Amino acid sequence: MTISIKPLGNRLVVEPIEEEEITAGGIVLPETAKEKPQKGIVLAVGPGERNDEGEYMPLEVKEGDRVLFAKYSGTEVKYDGKKLLIMRESDILAKIN
Amino acid sequence: MTISIKPLGNRLVVEPIEEEEITAGGIVLPETAKEKPQKGIVLAVGPGERNDEGEYMPLEVKEGDRVLFAKYSGTEVKYDGKKLLIMRESDILAKIN
Amino acid sequence: MTISIKPLGNRLVVEPIEEEEITAGGIVLPETAKEKPQKGIVLAVGPGERNDEGEYMPLEVKEGDRVLFAKYSGTEVKYDGKKLLIMRESDILAKIN
Amino acid sequence: MTISIKPLGNRLVVEPIEEEEITAGGIVLPETAKEKPQKGIVLAVGPGERNDEGEYMPLEVKEGDRVLFAKYSGTEVKYDGKKLLIMRESDILAKIN
Amino acid sequence: MTISIKPLGNRLVVEPIEEEEITAGGIVLPETAKEKPQKGIVLAVGPGERNDEGEYMPLEVKEGDRVLFAKYSGTEVKYDGKKLLIMRESDILAKIN
Amino acid sequence: MTISIKPLGNRLVVEPIEEEEITAGGIVLPETAKEKPQKGIVLAVGPGERNDEGEYMPLEVKEGDRVLFAKYSGTEVKYDGKKLLIMRESDILAKIN
Amino acid sequence: MTISIKPLGNRLVVEPIEEEEITAGGIVLPETAKEKPQKGIVLAVGPGERNDEGEYMPLEVKEGDRVLFAKYSGTEVKYDGKKLLIMRESDILAKIN
């Protein structure tokens, strides 16, 4: 899926996966954790932040990565009827397979 | 449209797009999101911030870019009867097509 | 107008323009904006801040510039019967023509 | 145990050890301390944070290390029926044997 | 007037001028400003702050300068019956003639 | 006494000395000070923090040092029946003899 | 007077002078100032803070200096029956003669 939203800086666009149980990697998210992470797929990444010399330092996360992020991170955008999230890479906890 | 407002530093002038549904890129903004972004067109950009050597690091956003930004960002200015916003580049979430 | 107030660092002296409608550039400031900017003319600028090597990085704003700034910025000083403001360059939103 | 969660930056995945008394090293955690640490085993570590040149600075903690951490650190994830924690290395107080 | 108080770092000793109207430069301070500056004469300055190499960066303000500062800045010291103020250079708004 | 707790970064393990009066150096801690320091012996030190090049900058405090620290610093750990504290070097006020 | 308290980093040990009027330099501290400084004699100084290269930058204040400091600074320690204070150099306002 190619989208026409190009995030700025260290932001990325994530499509959240709503289903509670997925089997890839066997990860099941807890019901009652104090801070529930949520799964998603990365659709677009920004160019990264610039260092002191003004060069971009590319993000660790790439398009297509499956990620865990804190549940209420980011800003919601609707795109072709789908709910997407624009968040910063620092909101991403981990990549999953 | 050429305007006579020249933002300072990493600020830019954005003309917000008020209509709820636009078709360019098919992006429709949600009604009830906790933090609604808003679309706009960039009319003018500042020279960027200076690094430690005093050189300007130009902004990622250019004049004419269509952008998403958090709804209550920036400072309102009226210009030729239009409501414009002066905000910082860090208030811009993404560029859209 | 030459004044005998020499601001320090990245501060500048601004003479605010009180009239609501000016025609230069056609900019009219809104009545009910949440954060009303105000227009003014720069009368004096400081030498700028020093970088890590101790060199001054001159300000973007020059004497004579017309500027927009957030309405309640700075410190009020009376000079020859006029109300002037001493503020930091970071309080300036944009230059106008 | 190989897991399919790859933490980002300076984060790591820790499997907490719930039992109150362990004998390895003879460390017994107090009942009534104002800030109770908890023991755990490190299952996966991120690549570290990048310095100003953009190079990764690897973490001090390695996979397999037994660690003490403040009890309510991190984000809970369920994996193969186990409760795991994703936390930052700065939440780790010490390594134990 | 030579005094035996040697301020540290970027601090300076200022003798405040209490009279409301002075004529040097014609500056009269407002009665009802939200943040009233006050005039004073600099009696002693510190060596400045050190940069990352450990060298002192001397202050912009010199002994004998007349300065404007925010009214409730600094720490009061009595010296030979006079009330002096020890403040940081960043509390100084401008030099006046 | 060799312990099997290896603190991370600029943290150290301190065994607090509970007795009110000790004679080494003649230091007696006050009864009613607003911020009572406490004495202790350093049992283990971390490798220090890394500078921007990623090199460790070793701590000023060494194993065996007697130290003063603010009374409620750090995290309590029980070890072989003793109450130990894991704290950061910045919590240490001074070394004593 | 040699003492066996060796402060860490940019801390120093000060013996406060309690008497209200001293004649050295003729400085008399005010009764009703909003922030009363207090006089003292420096008994010991730390090695200073380390810069980014890990080198110590020695303090401006030396053993034996008479100093002014904000009255409620630092941590109280009793030593040979005297009340001493351990504070940071940044709590020192000025040296006096």
TrEMBL record, chains A, B, C, D, E, F, G:
Major subcellular location class: cytoplasm
Which key words are in the record?
Chaperone, Cytoplasm
What compartments host this protein? Answer: Cytoplasm
Matching InterPro entries: Chaperonin_GroES (IPR020818), Chaperonin_GroES_sf (IPR037124), Chaprnonin_Cpn10_CS (IPR018369), GroES-like_sf (IPR011032)
Per the record, its GO cellular-component terms are: cytoplasm
SMART domains with a match to the protein in the record: Cpn10 (SM00883)
Q: Which GO terms describe its molecular function?
A: ATP binding; metal ion binding; protein folding chaperone; protein-folding chaperone binding; unfolded protein binding
Q: Does the keyword Disulfide bond apply?
A: no
Q: Which family does it belong to?
A: Belongs to the GroES chaperonin family.
What the protein does?
A: Together with the chaperonin GroEL, plays an essential role in assisting protein folding. The GroEL-GroES system forms a nano-cage that allows encapsulation of the non-native substrate proteins and provides a physical environment optimized to promote and accelerate protein folding. GroES binds to the apical surface of the GroEL ring, thereby capping the opening of the GroEL channel.
Assembly information from the UniProt record? Heptamer of 7 subunits arranged in a ring. Interacts with the chaperonin GroEL.
Q: What is this protein called?
A: Co-chaperonin GroES
Name of the gene encoding the protein in the UniProt record: groS
